[in-house]
Design brief:
Elements (H helix, E strand, L loop, with lengths): L7 H15 L9 H12 L5 E7 L6 E5 L6 E6 L4 H18 L7 E3 L1 H4 L6 H14 L2 H7 L8 H11 L3 H11 L4 E7 L2 E7 L1 H5 L26 H5 L1 E3 L9 E8 L4 E7 L17 H5 L5
Parallel strand pairs: 1-3
Antiparallel strand pairs: 2-3, 2-4, 5-6, 5-9, 7-8, 8-9
Length: 293
């Protein structure tokens, strides 16, 4: 089979079909390291992946690096990450190997935003799409959480466990296909580290610009008051004016191991779609959506 010119989605769908046909006992929790080496040896025997290892990486979350001869490749992931985080990072680097290694013969190094596909760089979005599709196939995910359905941390955590990925990876996967207006906000010490909006939320101007000056979380929000109770995890409905100028359901939990707060915001469905006619500065969300000046 000629794989020349295959993009990230075509590769991910092809490998997903192979996994579906084989249907191993650990179908959604397969060993990504063994899988990457086996697939590369079978499909790309001239320059396969020779090793997949967890190592100390000071400047990145994952890396795809060639051997001295350039005929072998290695996938390296930051051993400081959780096992689920490392698994997704390895899948991301496998995506780079399959799609980008010929254009980047010196390899690639990816920080956290790159692995999540949040930095607006095309090849990182492609590698993230590959990893998400391979580890969390869309047809299966949509059966668990339909595109029109609300969700919560419990349901998303069940998906994360099912696919053996981090909670954040599962949330971002859901946000990329849901038809609902929703946002994840990741914060620390009262300020947003980053945020990501679903496409429906973006179209109704529900997003946060976190690429410039620091953005505070709202003082009257659950996360702004450091309320991390079971009620906060399940969700509290705020009146308009707390997060946006409309009622907002906020679900918030504390991830102590990362010193981070995760907040999921969801809104009612029926809203007008806003159109912005004048010029504007590009921000993180424009880059996420591929907008150009």
């Amino acid at each position: 089979m000629n794989f020349e010119g295959w993009g990230s989605q075509r590769w991910a769908i092809h490998l997903t079909q192979l996994l579906n046909a084989a249907n191993p006992p650990d179908r959604y929790r397969f060993n990504i390291a063994a899988f990457a080496k086996e697939i590369s040896n079978t499909l790309c025997p001239d320059d396969p992946i020779a090793e997949v290892r967890s190592v100390d990486l000071e400047d990145c979350e994952g890396a795809l690096l060639p051997s001295d001869s350039g005929k072998r490749w290695g996938i390296y992931v930051n051993k400081k990450g959780s096992p689920r985080r490392r698994r997704f990072t390895a899948a991301h680097e496998l995506g780079h190997y399959l799609v980008h290694r010929q254009k980047y013969p010196d390899g690639l190094r990816c920080d956290e935003a790159a692995v999540d596909g949040r930095n607006g760089i095309e090849i990182e979005r492609e590698a993230n799409d590959f990893a998400s599709t391979l580890l969390m196939p869309l047809d299966d995910f949509r059966r668990r959480i339909p595109a029109k359905s609300e969700t919560d941390f419990d349901q998303l955590s069940e998906c994360a466990t099912h696919y053996d990925v981090s909670l954040v990876a599962a949330i971002l996967r859901w946000l990329r296909y849901t038809e609902r207006r929703a946002i994840i906000v990741v914060s620390r010490d009262g300020y947003m580290n980053w945020a990501w909006s679903s496409e429906a939320a973006l179209k109704s101007r529900r997003y946060f610009k976190t690429s410039g000056a620091p953005v505070e979380v709202p003082a009257r929000s659950l996360v702004g008051q450091s309320i991390f109770t079971e009620e906060a995890r399940a969700g509290v409905k705020h009146a308009e004016g707390v997060w946006f100028d409309e009622p907002t359901k906020e679900m918030t939990l504390r991830a102590e191991q990362y010193d981070l707060n995760y907040t999921l915001l969801q809104f009612a469905d029926a809203v007008p779609v806003f159109h912005h006619d004048g010029p504007r500065d590009l921000d993180t969300y424009d880059r996420f959506m591929g907008v150009r000046e």
